[in-house]
Design brief:
Blueprint lengths: L1 E2 L2 H5 L6 H4 L7 E5 L21 E6 L2 E8 L6 E5 L6 E4 L7 H4 L10 E6 L11 E6 L6 E7 L10 E6 L5 H11 L4 E4 L4 H11 L4 E6 L2 E2 L17 E7 L6 E2 L5 E4 L20 E11 L5 H17 L7 H13 L6 H17 L4 H4 L5 H11 L2
Parallel strand pairs: 1-2, 3-5, 7-9, 10-11, 10-12, 14-17
Antiparallel strand pairs: 2-4, 3-4, 6-8, 7-8, 12-16, 13-17, 14-15, 14-16
Helix pairs in contact: 6-7, 6-8, 7-8
Length: about 375
């Protein structure tokens, strides 16, 4: 079957079936709408037995092609082509609703990728694709059709307090309840990553805040709402360290996506920085009151300085790291500060000597092993 040259079709009154039927002497021939890209012919499945009538293939309200016999008898059969998307991509929070499913794509728009965006109020004014629909394998352009429905977006997040036999956990929990009455609590789950997974399990929002048991929260509002494109990013707020007066992410409040905890992970040494991109929020939101007894103070300093000295944390700034290590290993401004310094010095030694040994670094999350190290360090 011959397909007529596009230029020939354009040269005549191509909307007139009578004129189009006279363009070729072949027994059967196909006329393609000259407004269309001929690549969309792959969408046509010609399964109708050859006959003396003209077959019009239509997509939506527009015709895409017409098949004529040489001896056309004036009869016409309409074939409405069901167009199924080659590819649909639905990003997080977008709802593939009837508005998209019922969209009547014009035939001449088939070469384009069709896009529904998020409401820019949810994306800090940036145009971010929510749904993309392609009808052919390689789109030749992009058309924004409208705004997607976003029915599943939380603008207030659950707050979860993690405790595991910490000395002042109850007092810090009661303080947190004063600041944030909606806070929830996870008690006694062994293992730091496991405790965070349990927190994700009781959180009913797509993101959730984590507050450590040694964190004293004074007036933080827990009202930050990240744009959609940042909702897979771990957010970490600064915390004040009473022993050495440092202010950075150590012991700080964190905001996680629940998706970070949907699968079992092994070898997670630092939960906050091992799950993906991190955004530091340079606002002091809490005080990390880790110096409650000799072992807790030593353990906290040892773990943090092991991480810092091993360069475990992604995108560390060397100058900043050295300044923090210097403060950890020299400054004593609070109770049990001498144990903090001792733990920091031991942590620097351990982290520096095991910076290429992830199995050794994983031990800093084993509190029984840490107790053994503390006992040895005190001899």
């Amino acid at each position: 079957m011959k397909i007529l040259d596009n230029k020939l079709v354009k040269s005549v009154d191509w909307n007139s079936d009578q004129v189009l039927s006279q363009l070729c002497d072949e027994d059967y021939f196909l006329v393609v709408n000259p407004e269309l890209d001929e690549s969309i012919l792959k969408l046509i499945t010609i399964e109708i037995p050859l006959s003396d009538y003209c077959v019009k293939y239509k997509i939506g309200k527009g015709w895409i092609a017409k098949r004529f016999p040489k001896a056309w008898n004036g009869q016409v059969q309409i074939i409405q082509l069901p167009i199924h998307p080659y590819n649909i991509r639905i990003n997080k929070y977008a709802d593939l609703n009837s508005k998209v499913l019922d969209y009547d794509v014009p035939a001449w728009d088939l070469p384009y990728k069709h896009v529904w965006t998020y409401d820019t109020a949810l994306t800090n004014g940036e145009e971010v694709d929510a749904i993309t629909v392609s009808y052919i394998e390689s789109a030749t352009g992009r058309k924004v059709i409208g705004v997607a429905d976003n029915e599943y977006i939380n603008n207030e997040f659950d707050v979860v307090f993690l405790t595991y036999n910490e000395t002042d956990a109850q007092a810090n929990w009661e303080q947190l309840q004063k600041v944030c009455p909606r806070a929830k609590r996870v008690i006694g789950v062994k293992g730091i990553y496991n405790a965070h997974t349990a927190a994700a399990g009781i959180a009913q929002t797509d993101m959730f805040y984590v507050v450590d048991a040694d964190a004293f929260v004074n007036n933080f509002q827990f009202d930050y709402v990240p744009p959609i494109q940042d909702r897979d990013t771990v957010h970490i707020w600064y915390s004040y360290n009473p022993v050495n007066s440092l202010e950075y992410g150590y012991g700080g409040i964190k905001l996680f996506s629940k998706t970070h905890f949907q699968s079992t992970r092994v070898g997670v040494i630092d939960t906050a920085t091992s799950l993906g991109d991190v955004k530091v929020m340079p606002v002091v939101a809490s005080e990390t009151r880790f110096n409650t007894d000799e072992f807790s103070t030593w353990r906290s300093a040892f773990r943090e300085c092991t991480k810092l000295s091993s360069r475990l944390i992604k995108n560390q700034i060397n100058k900043e790291t050295e300044e923090r290590l210097n403060a950890w290993t020299t400054i004593n401004n609070a109770q049990y500060g001498n144990y903090s310094i001792a733990g920091a010095i031991a942590g620097v030694k351990y982290g520096s000597s095991n910076n290429s040994n992830p199995y050794a670094l994983e031990k800093i999350n084993d509190y029984n092993w840490l107790l053994t190290q503390f006992t040895e360090d005190q001899k």
